[in-house]
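Q: I'm writing a short explainer about Protein DltD for a general audience and would like to include a description of its predicted shape. Could you first generate the structure from this sequence?
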Amino acid sequence: MNNGKKLFGLIGPMITAGLLVLLVLFGPFHLGTPDAQTEKRAATSLSANVLRGDQIKRNALDRGYLMMMGSSELSRFDTFHPSVLTEKYPRGYHPFLLGEAGTQSLTHFFSTQMMGNKLDHKRVVVVISPQWFVKEGVEPEAFGFYYSKQQAINFINHANPQRVSDRYAAQRLLKMTAGSADPGIQGALQRIKAGKEITAWQYFSLVKVSGANLRQQDQLFTRFGIMNREPLLEHRLRSLPDDYNYPVLDQMAIAYGREHTSNNDFMIHNRFYNRKIRKIKNSLKDSQKGFSYEYGPEYSDFQLLLTQFKKHHVQPLFVITPVNSRWMAYTGLSQAMLNRFDRKINYQLQTQGFNQILDLHQQGKIPYFMQDTIHLGWRGWLQVDRRIHNFVQQPMPKNLNYQLRDYFYTKSWQQHNPRNLPNAE
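A: Of course. Here's the predicted structure. Afterward I'll give you a sentence or two in plain language.
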């Protein structure tokens, strides 16, 4: 055997393997659409890879799932969670949960814009947490965990630098550590932020090459590693009665809440209290006296989501969640401040034509409405589920008269004192 053959014998398999990888990542190979069982698991998985990608979400919309966006409250799978109730009582739809701890408006904007025209004329539910609206806005590390280059490239491909919304989105993404980490993406975003079209090279290298590769990876790999919560949901629904009856279920929720909040005076779930609060309770007294949800970039990030809904003729139901009133009294969080936050977010919604709102911000005093300090619990989820069901049963409006204002992208709005706003009604 001559040296050439020996050399080929050593490196030939490596070359072949490399070619196979290139064919898999850039070639015309497809696994087909995810099957119904994969979609069902994904709907309650809250897996970050599902949020980052596009194929599973787009197919879920085709299958009639109701996109339900929020943050950590979505993972509180008690017996009265909408995902449990829609499994027990046939409604003609199932929620597809998008969000976990750290997901806020900016994440949901980049996630929904990946769905493209599959979002057209759909209904969605958006669960708004007051805690999103802290002065600094979303934490870059939290945003980065749910971010993908595929999202950024999809945005760059469809961005119009002449639109205020797209220039603002580019600016916000550049401020995120993950969004500015790739030099190619960073350069394209800087041009969009400046009101300029991306270059031909940026389009080719990002959209045609990197974008194709990332779509292929999403198609090949996203469906794997999805957390399976179906056994948990099956366990939860076994205790539900065969027929849906709201007063009966509400009494069950009261009994569940009473049973599971027996070791503290805050009506907080025993397990949460033991793990998160008991040892540090004394240090938390009056610790939230200076908290405010009245100012910051989250208001403009939220406007991106509204712009996306207008673009695709989406009808959203917004659920504004409360805070546990007993916990507020202990930590010094101001109800008056929470009321002002509520006035500001309602003003932003209603003055632009978004009128489907379930405003629960004052319901934190209802026993067993909350599961812990800030998350919906037994009776809270039951009320949310009833409103979602009524929302979906209504005829879809033929015309959604949204009248968006670029003012809501300005620092002036972010810093606007809600005391100076008229009532939104």
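A: For your explainer, you could say: The beta strands are 66-69, 95-98, 123-128, 315-320, 357-359.
Q: Perfect, that's easy to follow.
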